[in-house]
Amino acid sequence: MNPESITVELRLATNASSPKLKAFADVTLPLGDLGLLKLCGFSVVQGAENTPTRVVPPARKGEQRYFEIVLPIGKIRKVVDDAVLAEYTKQLGTEGSPGEGTKRGRRA
Questions:
Q1: Contacts of 90 by beta carbon, 8 Å cutoff, 6+ apart
Q2: In the chain, where does DSSP find H-type helix?
Q3: pLDDT recorded at residue 103
Q4: Per-residue pLDDT tens over the stretch 80-95
Q5: CA Rg value for the chain
Q6: Euclidean distance between the first and the last CA atom of the chain, given in angstroms as a whole number
Q7: Rounded to the nearest 10 degrees, how much is the dihedral formed by the CA atoms of 78, 79, 80, 85?
Q8: Are strands 66-68 and 53-56 parallel, antiparallel or unpaired?
Q9: Of 11, 13, 37, 61, which is the most exposed, with the fewest CB atoms less than 10 Å away?
Q10: pTM of the predicted structure, to 2 decimals
Q11: What is the DSSP letter of 67?
């Protein structure tokens, strides 16, 4: 898979219930002749002070904890994380209204 062909739609969190939540992202992965796979519901979160911003895969809330819906494993995890964080960094540096989704391929 060519990392440049990954598409990220990112929306900055404006009124998040948690100040740690910074953005939401949907990722589209090309599958060649089979089509595309769109993974919705990634989150960009800021951990404790002096920890890097990280990408959290889509999850649903259970009775006692959250359960992953989609969990990228292996090299694809780094490719997806890098693409989402690159788009997040780009949107933080651009003018315009926060929360507007964009469709851009990201290099990982």
A1: 104
A2: 75-93
A3: 47
A4: 999 999 999 999 886 4
A5: 14
A6: 11
A7: 80
A8: unpaired
A9: 61
A10: 0.79
A11: E
Rounded to an integer, what distance in angstroms lies between the CA atom of residue 1 and that of residue 80? 11
- Residues near 45 by Cβ (< 8 Å), separated by ≥ 6? 18, 20, 21, 22, 53, 54, 56
The residues that bridge with 54 in the sheet, in sequence order, are: 45
The pLDDT of residue 49? 81
Residue type, 69: I
- Tell me the two tokens of residue 94: 């651009």
Q: What is the pLDDT of residues 14-56, one digit of tens each?
A: 876 788 899 999 999 999 999 999 999 999 998 888 888 999 9
Using an 8 Å Cβ cutoff, are 27 and 83 in contact?
yes
Residue 6 has pLDDT above 80, yes or no: yes
Q: Are 85 and 3 in contact (CB under 8 A)?
A: no
